[in-house]
Amino acid sequence: MVDAGINKTNIVCLGGGIGTVNLLNGLKEYTKDITVIVSMADDGGSAGRLRRLYNIIPVGDLVSCMAAMSKETDLIPNFLRYRFTGERYGRDNELGGHKLGNLIMVALKDLMGSYESAISEFKKLFQVEGEFLPATEEHVTISARTVDGKEIFGEEKIDLGKYKGKRGLERVYLHPENAKAAPGVLSAIENAKTIILGPGDLYTNLLPVIVVPEIAEALKKSTAKKIFIINVANKPFETKGYKAHDFASAIKRHIGEFPFDVVLVNNNTANPIPKEYHYDYVQTVEDPIFDTAKVIKTDLINTDFPLYHDSSKLAKVVSELI
User: Can you give the pTM of this predicted structure?
Assistant: First the structure.
């Protein structure tokens, strides 16, 4: 049941990966007044294969976020997330491994002629609430510089650690570096009452949104309440060994400042993370970079799968802030 008292909240969520999906799964119980601005750097899996085959923007995270916001809470989300049997990272022109919702979005873009119209029709077909925008409609890619100075090109290689040398990232770069924000993105940020970044993969989900130059400037200028949600656990090839302040330092390193008013940090590390994942909990330490932000430390963990936040716990804390 949506709480009518906070229904008109103008929340903008930046990111798009599983972390954003988890946030939406909980937040939609409080409000539907949500706009999601999704990274367009993905070049792996089903979305990457379709991107190469049909010369389109990657639609996978858009589809995942829309599935999370469907009024139908069971059949439709599962239908859209259905993945055909086969290799997810298979050949571009093979059906196996593709996600059904991604194929539908490709068809709608072809039929409707624009991403805006395709998203609108997708929402009507599958009873999706909220607004969904690609960060940019330009065909962007990313590269990263590792901590020992190696340049890695492509989101998939960065995400899966497909490179030699010391595993750890220093910076991510957008190509083209001056990619324009997609229609509607800047006005959504300008009109937001609350802006949320995270949770999500720092270098492959979150930073690729906010390093779009126009988005970076709009975020810094915004007078909205700005909330940064730090991941529960560190991904081996992106943020291994990061403490909470390292996430904030990375943002400052990329856009020149840490513009967030509130930082949410999980402080429940009692549940062991299964060793086969090679993840470790993000540790919380005090640091001057947080002097301008209120840091809220609380139990946000999904005890069944401690790599992620619990959607209900996270949404409850966020709802109390907006």
Answer: 0.94
